[in-house]
Amino acid sequence: MQGPEDLVDPGLEGMIDKARDASALLKALSHESRLLMLCMLCKGERTVTEIEHFLGMQQAVVSQQLARLRMDRIVQTRRDGRQIYYSIVDPQLAELISVLYKMYCDPSAAPQPDLHEAKA
Predict the structure, then answer these.
(1) Which residues make Cβ contacts (< 8 Å) with residue 70, sequence separation at least 6?
(2) In this model, does residue 112 exceed pLDDT 70?
(3) How far apart are CA 47 and CA 87, in angstroms?
(4) Sign of the CA dihedral 58, 63, 68, 72?
(5) Is 45 helix (H, G, I), strand (E, B) or coil?
(6) Which of 1, 2, 68, 77 can bridge 6 by disulfide, Cβ–Cβ 3.0-4.6 Å?
């Protein structure tokens, strides 16, 4: 006779761990400013100043959001003299961000449904 433990897929524990990791990543991506920064960084490394000017945000806001991305191990830094460059740590994440950029930000992309519209 099978017990309850026999009904659990042996790969389920690994899937649960990966789902937890994916959930944490998606939480980090769910902030509009962080997502915009990552869209910039998927094209290559940038300085804080470049990100500030491109997004029209104050340095304090940019630094705060980059610190969160660093804490979540999504971005890394490289110092060159007085400049600090940020880049995306994982090439697969850069690819995912690139897909999101193409879907939602690329001017030549087909329009996406407005997710903020009230549901009828």
Answers:
(1) 76, 77
(2) no
(3) 9
(4) positive
(5) coil
(6) 2
Quick: pLDDT tens for 32-52.
Answer: 999 999 999 998 999 999 999
Query: Rounded to whole angstroms, how far apart are CA atoms 100 and 96?
Result: 6
Q: Tell me how far CA of residue 118 lies from CA of 14, 31, 35, 115, in angstroms.
A: 37, 21, 24, 8
Q: Which residues of 34-55 are buried (b: 16+ CB within 10 A; e: fewer)?
A: bbbbbbbbbeebbebeebbeeb
Q: Which residues contact 63 (CB under 8 A, 6 or more apart)?
A: 48
Domains annotated on the chain, with CATH: 24-105 (1.10.10.10)
User: What 3 state SS string does 55-107 have?
Assistant: HCCCHHHHHHHHHHHHHCCCEEEEEECCEEEEEECCHHHHHHHHHHHHHHCCC
Provide the strand spans (E) within the chain: 46-47, 75-80, 83-88
Q: Which residues contact 105 (CB under 8 A, 6 or more apart)?
A: 39
0.85 surpassed by pTM: no
What is the residue type of 46? R
